Structures are given as C-alpha cells and as structure tokens.
C-alpha cells in the first residue's frame, strides 16, 4: 500500500512480512524457543491502564527530552538490530538519515550490515549516535572499536549483556545460512562461522561468554562515553550496574530473542525503580533506566515513562518500516509516533514528560496473570 495508508507501526509489520524474502523475515521476526517472551512483551503493556487527569490546559504539549545528555525529539531511541541489508539495500543508513532529519537517536549495532564509518558518515554534523557493543573474545578488537567510536563522536556505548550465547530462534535456524551478500561486515578476527544454524548463530561466534562484572572497570578505563548495560532483568543486577559506575541500564530481553519466558522489561521496571530509590535521589540524573521490547505505540512509551523509565527503545518497529519503505518508512514511523505523543499527552493531561507520574497509570494488574 502507499505510505500514507500506513496508520500505525503495526501496519509496517504486515507489509514487511509480505515483501521480505522468507529468510529475512525469519531472521527479523523470530524469537527464541516457544516465543512466549516476545508475546509477553506486547501483552504486558495491555495490562497497564491509564488514569488520565483532566482540565490542565493542554494547548501546548512537549514530549521532547534528553537521553544521556543528547537532545531527542521523542522519548524513544532506535535500538540496535543487526543485518539491516537483509531488509533493504541501504540497510542501517535508512535509520541514520531519518533519525538525523527528525532529531531521533540511533543505536548502531556491532553487527550492522553497513560499516560503522559508513553509518557515521551518513549522519548530520552533531547528530547524536549511540553504539551497541558485542564484546569480542579478543579484547584488543573491542578496545579499538570502542575508542574509534568515541573518536567519531558517539555519545554512549550500550554493552549487550543478555547474549553470552545467542538464543535458539528456530524459525531462523530452519532457513539455514545462505550467503546472499547481505551479511554483516563482521569484525576482524572472527572465526568459526557455523553455516547450518541460521543467520543469528552464524554471525555471532565471536561474542565472549566470559564477560563479567570484573570487565566493567576495564570499559571505564578505555572510554569516557556513557556506559549502559543492555539486557538487565533484575533489581539485583540493576544495583550491581549502579554500583559499578554505569550510567544506565536497559530493561530488555532482546526482543524475546534470548532466554524464553523471561519477563518483559515493563514488568521488571517497577521493582527495579523501587530498588534504585533505596540507593539515592530519584530520578537520578546520573543513572538512567531504559526499557525496550514490544513498544509500538506512544501510549506504550507513556506507560514506561510514568513508571520511571527515562526513554524507551524500539527495534522491530523501525526495522519493519525501512524494510517496507526505506528511509521514508522510518520518517513516517517517527511522524506517526509524534502524532500519537501529541494526542496521548493531551488526553492523559501531561504537558511535558516530567508530568508523567506513577499516579497516571494503574499497574495493579501488571503482575497478576
Ligand atoms: C535485535 N536486537 C539486538 N540487540 C543487540 O543488542 N544486538 C543486536 O545485534 C541485536 N540484533 C537484533 C536483530 C533483530 C532482527 C531484532 C528484532 C532485535 C534487540 C534489539 O536491540 C531490541 O532489544 C529489541 O528489538 C526490542 O524489541 P522490539 O522493539 O523489537 O519488540
């Protein structure tokens, strides 16, 4: 359908499913094992209800924010999704260009199809970018990569901590790995590619499963970028991240692609905020909580923000947008979210995102299922 008939982020998914080659659809849409967590990521948002406030003069509402010190036109960033060229010949550059035009922040994946420098070169001067990091067994490679990113102006590094081994995504595994030239430019020194286990496993064998809390001071010693751990699920680990001197955490289950039957980030948020409040002032300007997984509507984002998140990540929503319509699709997705924010902020009675408070949601059914 023509782009102006796309009315919400779900519509992009339907188009992507229809237009993508079977292998690309399998890699993008798949989740691990029985795909319970991916379903729960959406379902959790549907168990939280709004408690809107009225008569607050919502003539002008502002949903812009600052994420890790960088301005963002939305309280949403584009989360890293690997292998953009499986979906569109311009791959991740679709995201970079649309993000630059609309003041949104993109997280560059370690396993991007375009090279890191191509992506940074496609950004506008001063356009903020984040980096998603898979840590290599060869730490020299990781060190060079991180320091190069910092030199090129990247603001924050999101270390993925929920993937010491990639999950079994059986839809993807059934497709086998056929090299069609769209593969990631994986980092030097990678070896042991297994071609019979689906795209995900074939590209990920360099990831170091020995990564531990002891490595965090090393990351701090090699970079001044903000350090965020992507893939935290418990208050225990949230506190360890805080005490290790990280600048934030992403409550994420990797879009349901790692440990199946993990809880959703939204469901973990309440306990984790409560735990961090015991550690100091809240909101803490030096420690941010992000959430991702299943976010497709601005109303989802408002729920996470009301419950204490600083911003929210969206993966497949933008991935499907460029897979179906390239850069224009991503721009449309951003515009759709912007329109949804305007309307929902008015209807909930919040003039800025600071006015989104826990009392604006009823989360009493969130754990009751
Ligand atoms: C991902 N995600 C991901 N995360 C990461 O840290 N490194 C990566 O390389 C990838 N690659 C990737 C590929 C694909 C196809 C998907 C769908 C996801 C996870 C991603 O950053 C994010 O956590 C989830 O996508 C959020 O869930 P939604 O928005 O897709 O529901």
From TrEMBL:
Superkingdom in the source lineage: Eukaryota
Main location group: mitochondrion
One Gene Ontology cellular component: mitochondrial intermembrane space
Domain FMN hydroxy acid dehydrogenase: 1-366
Regions annotated as coiled coil: none
Cofactor: heme b; FMN
Compartments it resides in: Mitochondrion intermembrane space
Catalytic activity: (S)-lactate + 2 Fe(III)-[cytochrome c] = 2 Fe(II)-[cytochrome c] + pyruvate + 2 H(+)
Gene Ontology MF term list: heme binding; L-lactate dehydrogenase (cytochrome) activity; metal ion binding
Keyword Mitochondrion attached: yes
Broadest EC class assigned to this enzyme: oxidoreductase
EC number from the UniProt entry: 1.1.2.3
Keywords: Flavoprotein, FMN, Heme, Iron, Metal-binding, Mitochondrion, Oxidoreductase
Description of how the protein assembles with itself and partners: Homotetramer.
Entry's family note: In the C-terminal section; belongs to the FMN-dependent alpha-hydroxy acid dehydrogenase family.
Protein name (record): L-lactate dehydrogenase (cytochrome)
Species assigned in the record: Hypholoma sublateritium (strain FD-334 SS-4)
């Amino acid at each position: 359908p023509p782009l102006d008939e796309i009315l919400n982020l779900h519509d992009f998914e339907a188009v992507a499913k229809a237009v993508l080659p079977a292998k690309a659809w399998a890699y993008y849409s798949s989740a691990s094992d029985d795909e319970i967590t991916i379903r729960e990521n959406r379902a959790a948002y549907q168990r939280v209800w709004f408690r809107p406030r009225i008569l607050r003069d919502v003539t002008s509402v502002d949903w812009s924010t600052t994420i890790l010190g960088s301005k963002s036109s939305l309280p949403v960033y584009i989360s890293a999704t690997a292998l953009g060229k499986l979906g569109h010949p311009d791959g991740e550059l679709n995201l970079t260009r649309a993000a630059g035009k609309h003041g949104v922040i993109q997280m560059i994946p370690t396993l991007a199809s375009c090279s890191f420098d191509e992506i940074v070169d496609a950004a506008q001067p001063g356009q903020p970018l984040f980096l998603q990091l898979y840590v290599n067994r060869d730490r020299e490679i990781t060190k060079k990569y991180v320091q190069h990113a910092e030199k090129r102006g990247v603001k924050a590094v999101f270390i993925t901590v929920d993937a010491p081994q990639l999950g079994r995504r059986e839809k993807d595994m059934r497709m086998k790995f056929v090299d069609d030239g769209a593969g990631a430019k994986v980092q030097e020194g990678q070896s042991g590619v297994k071609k019979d286990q689906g795209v995900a496993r074939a590209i990920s064998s360099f990831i170091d499963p020995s990564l531990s809390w002891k490595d965090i001071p090393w990351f701090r010693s090699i970079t001044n970028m903000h350090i965020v751990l992507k893939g935290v699920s418990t208050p225990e680990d949230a506190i360890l991240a805080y005490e290790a001197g990280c600048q934030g955490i992403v409550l994420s289950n990797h879009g349901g692609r790692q440990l199946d039957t993990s809880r959703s980030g939204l469901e973990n948020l309440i306990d984790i905020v409560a735990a961090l409040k015991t550690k100091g002032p809240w909101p803490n300007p030096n420690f941010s909580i992000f959430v991702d997984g299943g976010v497709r509507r601005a109303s989802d984002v408002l729920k996470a923000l009301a419950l204490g998140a600083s911003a929210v990540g969206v993966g497949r929503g933008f991935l499907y947008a460029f897979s179906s319509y390239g850069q224009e699709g991503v721009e449309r997705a951003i515009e759709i979210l912007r329109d949804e924010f305007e309307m929902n902020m008015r209807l909930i009675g919040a003039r800025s995102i600071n006015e989104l408070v826990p009392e604006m949601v009823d989360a009493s059914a969130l754990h009751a299922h």
